[in-house]
Amino acid sequence: MSPEFFYLYFIAGTIALVLTIYQIVATYQAINSGNIILYFIPVILLYYMAYKVYHVKNDNELM
Predict the structure, then answer these.
(1) Which helix (H) or strand (E) holds 33?
(2) Contact 18, 6 (CB under 8 A)
(3) C-alpha span between 35 and 9 (Å, rounded)
(4) Residue-wise pLDDT tens for the chain (63 aa)?
(5) What is d(CA 43, CA 50) in angstroms, rounded to the nearest whole number?
(6) What does pTM read for this prediction?
(7) Nearest CA to 12 among 38, 39, 37, 47?
(8) Contact 53, 6 (CB under 8 A)
(9) Which residues of 24-52 are buried (b: 16+ CB within 10 A; e: fewer)?
């Protein structure tokens, strides 16, 4: 993983989180727990990728 993608993953995860929260608020009456889990999967994956890239960047600086 390349360290220059950290900000890309972080910003994409934040945008996905904001859109997910907006979707939950906008469809509050028709939402169920299964949909909430499916909405948060991309958010979790993007933040995980940002986390992994950040640690690769820090490891390269230490070497």
Answers:
(1) helix 33-62
(2) no
(3) 23
(4) 566 788 899 999 999 999 999 988 888 887 788 888 888 999 999 999 998 888 765 655 554
(5) 11
(6) 0.77
(7) 47
(8) yes
(9) eeeeeeeeeeeeeeebeeebeebbebbee
